[in-house]
Fold this sequence. Notes:
The protein is of the alpha/beta class. The chain is built from 10 helices and 9 strands. The chain has helices at 10-14, 20-27, 64-76, 96-104, 121-127, 143-154, 164-169, 202-220, 232-240, 246-254; strands at residues 2-6, 32-36, 50-51, 61-62, 84-93, 110-113, 130-133, 187-188, 191-192. It has a 5-stranded parallel sheet with strand order 2-1-6-5-7. A two-stranded antiparallel sheet has the order 3-4. Bound molecules: S-adenosylmethionine (SAM).
Amino acid sequence: xxxxxxxxxxxxxxxxxxxxxxxxxxxxxxxxxxxxxxxxxxxxxxxxxxxxxxxxxxxxxxxxxxxxxxxxxxxxxxxxxxxxxxxxxxxxxxxxxxxxxxxxxxxxxxxxxxxxxxxxxxxxxxxxxxxxxxxxxxxxxxxxxxxxxxxxxxxxxxxxxxxxxxxxxxxxxxxxxxxxxxxxxxxxxxxxxxxxxxxxxxxxxxxxxxxxxxxxxxxxxxxxxxxxxxxxxxxxxxxxxxxxxxxxxxxxxxxxxxxxxxxxxx
Length: 266
Ligand code: SAM
């Protein structure tokens, strides 16, 4: 998959290709990452990419010509480029469904990272198809947001992650948060691994993990349960659970006292 990033700090994006799954995908040719620096499209000796805002006020604004020309150069070099996406706190919230859509559509997105107070509105009007936000907070620049999108999309590309099952079971893939994980040793600092995971009965383990996923989703992100489709047996099980924290505590006991996040224990 080809992804182009328009950025004043291409080194921040290039760094992604050095590490972990994204690095391996880039080295293996699964991810074809390119950067375009608006500074290379300036015409003055100072290579100016920003200017003061009309109407006054704080900060600087990214100028139209260098940014527009960098985006157009990226588009010209990317046959089949589908969408030009501006990373912005004012955009639609990026989520797993969008990451999957980008990964599956064989999209060739061009990601535009802003700096300063943002970009001149006319670039948005003429060059940008869609704005994406990675959350309700303001970063100093769009590079980290672009990195989030690239990382989330890359790990969904077939072959990027060694064991595809791990992607299928991740949080949000099934509409639930993922169940808790344990590895060796069996006991540490007085905390044990839930017995069910040691017995080797795969059906029993699957059932336990599913219920754990439902319980922790109900506790941490209850709104996700609204869209969940359960079979009759699990619908009844969920309906019969008391509304407050009790059942999860009940399960904690059968877990040997482990629930995962220390901050949630009382
Ligand atoms: N003045 C802008 C506003 O209030 O909407 C914020 C500008 S911010 C300091 C600079 C750049 O960081 C933005 O142009 C955008 O590209 C990026 N950015 C900041 N927060 C972001 C977020 N939550 N998601 C995606 N991009 C973000």
